[in-house]
Each structure stands twice: as structure tokens, then as C-alpha cells.
């Protein structure tokens, strides 16, 4: 049964139409059990609205819709690759057209500042458009071996892609997942994070408007252990792509192993080192390093949460870093000059405060911050911690908040050892004006992304993913296409006689 959109009030007093059903077969439908759950405004801690919750049986319905859309001879499978590309580029255009409403929803539901939310929508549209361009450029190779036979490869879609996304970049992760999956000709059942279901549901209106055939993109709101697990375990799901915590990444892999051995790609946590050498441009290093940790309130898997500064400039760097951090505008995400809004939930707020306490208990020094900001919502002051050592919990575990630890190092060998001393390998950065240091250190870092003299500048053309326990596979760029295709080898016999026994 179809479900109508509801009017949602914005802090400005205006309202907008929010779809709340499960998006299946291009309609917003009621789940079988008819249950809803609240989504909370992290700036106030109060509910925004309720959306319908997908359970196992609703995952079945969405997967069936996707299976049907993927059937050989279906409307979708009969599209030319260029027509498929047009659908994605149209979707990107529509996202740009609706940037204000999408960004507003993102700020409301996730708490990110409106200026950053607008940037997220633009990055999302860029990603979708980029993959639209790939649709008619995906093909195999020919292998010319001898005249008697002809061999070639085909890059075929995997089929039904189960995609599970987190709450820190709701619309951007939706785009990173849908873009390459559709570019390769797959169909999608995507589950949003329970904390932030709204922007993806709204964007599904644009999926329909762009003209995607029914069942190609299906989006469910629901909880990880119920709908997420059902998707990861589903026998008719051919691949699962997940972004989130390492602990859940393990559960997804297990669910795949215990069901149909579906392909798995994982983009997981990080504890990324940001290395500042004596010869760095210190003012630029301070600004980028602030952005490296406080962007998106520290809720970035690649956040530069461990800063290592070479002895010669340590004191000066720390002093300048603190001055810059103190100037961060924290508060109402809808104010144009706000940089840092609230953390996404009470649970995240409590986790982060727990890490700050653990740091204090282990003897670290809280230079600034460490407390709640304001009276309501889940705001945390930008926090700088020094006097740390490698064994401390705050140097080993992902905090996922506006909390940075700054430590000293002596030389390259010392900092490489420290940088590698975690289970993660998602990202790293090097600040230096010496080209040799930049290249030699970035070559040695165990990380899927290395920034030289910048931080957090992600681009849809460059692959993103982790070494070590930060993940499996790559998102973005041409590399993501490998994750969404099967390669088939075809032998074509021209005149080779059958073997004689
Ligand atoms: P975080 O700890 O940052 O909230 P999670 O890794 O718990 O991140 O969640 C990321 C996504 O994974 C969310 O969409 C969540 O619902 C989903 N999820 C959580 N647990 C499971 C699970 N056991 N199986 C599948 N998906 C899950």
C-alpha cells in the first residue's frame, strides 16, 4: 500500500514534504508490520518525525522487486548503456536543482552545518554524474593468441547489490553506493542508517522523476541488526557493500559467509595519522589539520585524529592549533557561519565523552574543550589533547568526534612506527615542503589515502578505501567498477579440432 508524504516543520518555520514509506518499485510503501520509528533532531534531542521501518519480510519484498527489475529482457536490462548513463546524469541534475531542500534535510536530520550540507549535495551530484559517464565505457578485452580461436572478456553486472550506509554522510554515501552499482548495470536495495533516514528517502523522489524503471533502486529505512542483517544474509542478494564500523563490517562478512558467499566490500573505521615535519608551512598545516579533525564534527572515518608533530615546531604548532580550534564556530547548523553542529545522537555524544574521560584517566592533558557545548542537543566543544602515548585508548580507538590527540616525534623512523601502530589503515597525511620527504613518507604509509599538504579533500575520481582493518575493496573512481562487475572469460573456437583421446 502506498504511503503519503507528511509535512515536516523546519526551524525556520517553513515546512517541506517528507516521504516516510519504504521506497520499493518506485513507490513509497507500507511495511508489512506497519511499524514506525522516530528520527531525532540532534540539535535539540527532539523527534523530527517518524518513518516506516523495514523488517526481514520487507527486505524480501524489496529484493524481489530488484530481482524482477534485473531479469533478462526487463525494461532496465534492455536499456542501452548510454540510456542508463542518461538516467544517472538526469538524477545528478535533479539533485543540483533541489540542493536547498536536500541540504536542509541533511542539516536537520544529521546536524551538519548548512554550508557543509550544501557541499555534500554537490559532491553527491558530482559522483552520480561521474558514474553516469562511465556507463558506456565499461567493457572487456580481447586476447589475440592464435588464429584458431578468439578469446575475450565481458564485464557483467553482479546483480542485486545490498548496500548498507552510515549516518555521517547520508546522501553522499547513498551516491557513492548507487553511482557505481548502476553504472555497471546492477540493481540496488539500500538500507540507510536508522539515525538519518530522511535525505535518502527524499532523493528517491528524484530517482522516480529521473525515469529509472521500477525496482532498480530500492531504499529501506530500518535497523542494522534487523533489516541490515537480513540484507547481508539474503540468498538472492549477490553483493553487499557496507560503510560503517569495523565491528559491523565483521558481522557483514560473517553473514555473507553463512549465507550465499555474496561478494563483500567494506569501508570501515580509521585512526588516521597526520604528520607535520619541521619544514612544513606551519600556518597552512595548522589550518588543514583543524579541517582534518573538525570537519563534519570529527564524524569522518578518515579524520586526522592523531597529529604527530616533529620536535622542532611542536610547541609552536600546538599553540597555533589551539588558537585556530578555539575560533571554530560551534552551534546552530542552520546559521551560515556555523562550522560545527551537534554530534548525531546521544549514543555518539556519550561515547565521545567516555573517550575524553578515558584520556584524562590515563594521564593525558585536555588543552581545550572536553565538555558539552550549550544546553541542549549533542554538541561537544572542539577538544585538543596532549601528553599522550601510543598505548592510550584515545590513541588506539576511533573516537568519531571533535577530539584530536597531538604527540611529538623525532625523525621519519620514529613517526612511521607510531603512525602504523594501530589496526587501521584508512588515511594519513604528511605536511612538509621537502618533496623527497613527501614522497618517501607517503610511499611508506600503510593507508588507502595519503594527503600531502592538505586533509579531507575527497574526490570522486580518486579511489577511497582501507589497508589493514579499515576495509576491503575500493569505492570511487574507476576502481569501484571492479567491485560491481563479474569478469567473464569467453573462448570462441574458430577452427580448433576437438582433442583426440
Ligand atoms: P556506527 O557505529 O557509526 O553507528 P554502524 O557500523 O553501527 O555505525 O552502522 C552503520 C550501518 O550499518 C547502519 O546502517 C546500521 O544500521 C548498519 N548495521 C548495524 N549493525 C548491523 C548488522 N549487524 N548487520 C548489518 N547492518 C548493520
Q: Can you tell me about this structure?
A:
There is one protein chain. The protein is an alpha/beta fold and 501 residues long. The chain folds into two domains: 6-268 and 470-487, Aldehyde Dehydrogenase, Chain A, domain 1, CATH 3.40.605; 273-452, Aldehyde Dehydrogenase, Chain A, domain 2 (3-Layer(aba) Sandwich), CATH 3.40.309.10. It is 37% helix and 23% strand. The protein has 15 helices and 24 strands. The strands form seven sheets. It has a seven-stranded mixed sheet, sandwiched between helices. β14 (273-276), α9 and β15 (306-310) form a beta-alpha-beta unit. α2 runs antiparallel to α4, α3 crosses α4 (114-134) and α9 packs across α10 (314-326). The longest helix is centred in the N-terminal third of the chain and has 21 residues, at 114-134. The protein is globular and about 75 Å long. The site of adenosine-5'-diphosphate (ADP) has 17 residues, from α7 and α8.
